[in-house]
Design brief:
CATH superfamily: MetI-like
Distance between the termini: 75 Å
CATH architecture: Orthogonal Bundle
Strand content: under 5%
Shape: flat
Structural class: mainly alpha
CATH class: Mainly Alpha
Number of domains: 1
CATH topology: MetI-like fold
Number of helices: 13
Length: 274
């Protein structure tokens, strides 16, 4: 009696490339299903009526949006300048060989990084009550610049410190060997290179400041001092519709999207130069 043995061929394993392709196509299929479900189940008429009413879009664009847009840019620019100058000083203090300078800078940075920005705004709004006769120049711009600039300085200080430490120490030693004072070497050699390195992260700080400027509403500004969020909120409340707030949100995108594209291009250029 003879027996026959049937050998089964081993299954061929998928290559990593084929496996990655199948996973990618599965992800596309899931995304397409989600899009189709949203398209066929959403109440588009209701969505348009709540978020994109044509008459309220026109009202929002013509009522006071240019002033709010300008104020958002002015608040951001002033806070960035204060944060940049103060952050540079704090970064140098953090790297100083003098102990008290390092301690003061460390406490400052940790304090303002740990506090929510809205708490800082609230504190500055109550300063005139704590210090009778205190007047902050260019109010409300001065108040916003200082409050938001203090918060920004803590974050920028760490970014600038990292940029300074990324500069090759050999360049500083070469400058010192030529008789250049330490302060001059820092100002003419270290800082220019450090800022070139940290330009993309600093641009990200600008984007964060644009969004943090939305917290200005806690200061109780008049209509001439409104920024985009406060303007959109008030108009949305008075009309019982979210369209003005959506228009204000798109205005933030108009500001931040070009900055995001700029950051990506700068990072790509830095990678090529390496």
């Amino acid at each position: 009696m003879s027996t026959t043995t049937t050998e089964t061929a081993p299954k061929k394993k998928l290559s990593p490339r084929r496996r990655a392709q199948r996973i990618r196509w599965a992800q596309y299929a899931v995304l397409a299903i989600i899009v189709l479900v949203v398209l066929f189940t959403a109440n588009w008429g209701q969505l348009q009526d709540v978020f994109f009413r044509t008459d309220l879009v026109k009202l929002t664009l013509t009522e006071g949006l240019p002033t709010a847009f300008k104020n958002t840019l002015v608040y951001t620019a002033g806070a960035f300048l204060i944060g940049l100058v103060l952050g540079t000083v704090l970064a140098l203090m953090r790297l100083s060989s003098v102990g008290p300078y390092r301690w003061i800078a460390t406490v400052w940075i940790e304090f303002f990084r740990g506090l929510p920005a809205i708490v800082v705004f609230l504190a500055f709004s109550l300063l005139p009550l704590a210090f009778e006769g205190l007047i902050i120049p260019y109010d409300p711009y001065g108040t916003v610049w200082v409050a938001l600039g203090l918060v920004a300085s803590a974050y920028m200080a760490e970014t600038i410190r990292a940029g300074i430490q990324a500069v090759p120490p050999g360049q500083i030693e070469a400058a010192r060997s030529l008789g250049m004072p330490s302060g001059t070497a820092t100002r003419k050699i270290v800082l220019p290179q450090a800022f070139r390195i940290i330009t993309p992260p600093l641009t990200n700080e600008v984007i964060l400041l644009v969004k943090d400027s939305s917290l200005v509403y806690v200061l109780g500004l008049s209509a001439t001092g409104y920024e985009l969020t406060k303007y959109g909120r008030d108009l949305a409340s008075s009309n019982a519709n979210l369209t003005p707030l959506m228009v204000a949100g798109f205005c933030y995108l108009i500001i931040t999207l070009p900055l995001s594209i700029l950051v990506r291009r700068m990072e790509a250029r830095q990678k090529k130069e390496r």
